[in-house]
Design goal:
Blueprint: H1 4-7, H2 18-29, H3 34-37, H4 42-63, H5 65-77, H6 92-113, H7 118-123, H8 125-156, H9 164-192
Helix pairs in contact: 2-4, 4-5, 5-9, 6-8, 6-9, 8-9
Amino acid sequence: MTDYFALLDEPRQPWLDEETIKAKFFALSTSVHPDRVHALPDTERKTAHDRYTQLNAAYHCLREPKERLRHLLELQVGRKPAPVQQVPAELVELFFEIGHATRGADEFLKRKASITSPLLLVGLFDEGQNISERLAGLRDNLTARQNQLTNELQTLNDDWQQRLERLEQIQQTLSYLHRWTAQLQERIVELTL
């Protein structure tokens, strides 16, 4: 397995500065970028392409806390983090709230799709706006929780090797939060159409 931390010359730790990662990616990838190597012979172009692909994968992995943690844990313990079987206890209430809100949005969207009269559709505008605002509020709640966990990662940098269990919990929680955020955002977009 490729060590993305080593590839971007970053220390193995849970929190990394995104701007630093971005700067290193750009600096390392400049000479192998496809726009710069198109005139090279095939073998050199393929080597440059492979290197650029690896650097790109490293950048996308390390800039995202959830993926960075997954990769860090995999490197440290030699296996992928355990699959999540159950919603973490601190998220159960939020899980039900999101489920209720998304079902309500889906029912509204189904009802809206069955209406062909422009006049009746105008009558649904306020209801759709209220649902969209509720979903946006939940999405903002999820974003705040993600930010709290990301901030916690920074405090764990010094002794993360003794805190692997907590890192795995954070990684799993971030997985749920990202998935739910995407579900809410999908419905918010659908409601605007």
